Amino acid sequence: MQDLLNSALQAIENANNSNELKEIEIKYLGKKGLITEQLKTLKDLSEEDKRTTGKAIQEIKQKFLSAYQKKASQLEIEEINSKLTAEFFDITLPRLNKINHSKKGTIHPLNQLQQQVEEIFSDMGFEIADGPEVESEYYNFEALNIPSHHPARDMQDTFFIENKADPKHGELILRTHTSPVQIRTMELKGAPLRIIVPGRVFRYEATDATHDSTFNQVEGLLIDKNIGLADLKGIMEEFLSRLFEKDITVRFRPGYFPFVEPGLELDILWQKGKNGQSDKWLEFMGAGMVHPNVLKAGGIDPENNQGWAFGFGITRLAMIKYQIADIRQIHNSDLRFLKQF
Ligand code: FA5
After folding, report:
1. Which of 155, 217, 282, 327 most suits a substitution to test ligand 1, by most atoms within 8 Å of the C-beta?
2. Looking at ligand 1, which residue's alpha carbon is closest to its atom 12?
3. Protein residue closest via CA to atom 21 of ligand 1
4. Mean pLDDT of 295-303
5. In this structure, which residue's CA is closest to atom 14 in ligand 1?
6. Global pTM value
7. Maximum distance among all alpha carbons in the chain?
8. What is the 3-state secondary structure (H, E, C) of the chain?
9. Residue 199: which residues within 8 A CB-CB, separation 6 or more?
10. How far is the CA of 286 from the centre of ligand 1 (A)?
11. Structural domain 109-338, CATH architecture
């Protein structure tokens, strides 16, 4: 038995890792282990021998277990340490140059501009309103004083959604301008109102350098008592001067939109004419005093309230501000273009 113990202790001592140690435990203490087998022989011995031999085997077992546990914890520490060494990484290492940081995303120029527009109008007390891109004929046309068969419907060629007629609101369409949100917000909030509506609009037209079939507009609507066009002129000059970071002069020209009366176009003075040449004006947006029929459609009493509205193409504004020659570049997701902003 002393030999058995010696060989067991020697095996434990020589174990290189916890798997080998586990094998040794099975070899000596498993169901058919060498020490276990010794215990099984006890039943054939006399009472006297059982006691002495039993005690001796138990002592061997205890010595085996204590050597085993000592070795097990020693191996465990060794194994943790070697794992830590293998998995060590240096968090202070400088980055590898081959990682191309120019691939980091940037905010799309159109969104950058929209954020700026929202900020400036928010500072002037305007709230930002929203409406659906899939709109009904009622909100896009009728409520804006454009009945069906009105020639003005041809001014904005329309995408229709197939088989989606709604008896109350007419066909479903892709909105052709942000003006339907005027009616939706009047219905929702009533007077007074001071909102801008940035949003995407759609027109069924051929594209060229200045026309796209999807583009973004910003609608403006102010309704209160004793409101006039002088307020509109002041607000637009303030807005444009802040946006272009220089003093901007604007002028009104007569214009026609069925939902405003009088209707007008607003131009920006872009270049003062030198040496007797005429000034260069840029067409910027449509606007006018909200038509009484439109106020009525929105549930606002036209006897006691007035307002003005405007709508400009922010995609065109982006072209002016960032000097983009072709509007179609704005939506084609070409990284060589987008990385410039
Ligand atoms: C309108 O859409 C009116 N709803 C604007 C308005 C609102 C007038 C409130 C009065 C009161 P218009 O169709 O002109 O108007 O479009 C307004 C702006 O959208 C244009 O000045 C232009 O900047 C832009 N725009 C129009 N068509 C296109 C297009 N195909 N591609 C890019 N921008 C366009």
Report:
1. 217
2. 286
3. 285
4. 97
5. 286
6. 0.72
7. 134
8. CHHHHHHHHHHHHHCCCHHHHHHHHHHHHCCCCHHHHHHHHHHHCCHHHHHHHHHHHHHHHHHHHHHHHHHHHHHHHHHHHHHHHHHCCCCCCCCCCCCCHHHCCCCCHHHHHHHHHHHHHHHCCCEECCCCCEEEHHHHCHHHCCCCCCHHHHHCCCCECCCCCECCCECEEECCCCCHHHHHHHHHHCCCEEEEEEEEEECCCCCECCECCEEEEEEEEEEECCCCHHHHHHHHHHHHHHHHCCCCCEEEEECCCCCEEEEEEEEEEEECCCCCCCCEEEEEEEEEEECHHHHHHCCCCCCCCEEEEEEEEHHHHHHHHHCCCCHHHHHCCCHHHHCCC
9. 130, 131, 133, 175, 178, 181, 216, 217, 218, 219
10. 7
11. 2-Layer Sandwich (3.30)
pLDDT of residue 99: 59
Ligand 1 environment, Cβ below 6 A: 156, 177, 179, 203, 205, 211-212, 215, 217, 219, 257, 260, 285-288, 309-313, 315-316, 327
Q: How far is the CA of 191 from the centre of ligand 1 (A)?
A: 25
**pLDDT class of 241 with cuts at 50, 70, 90:** very high
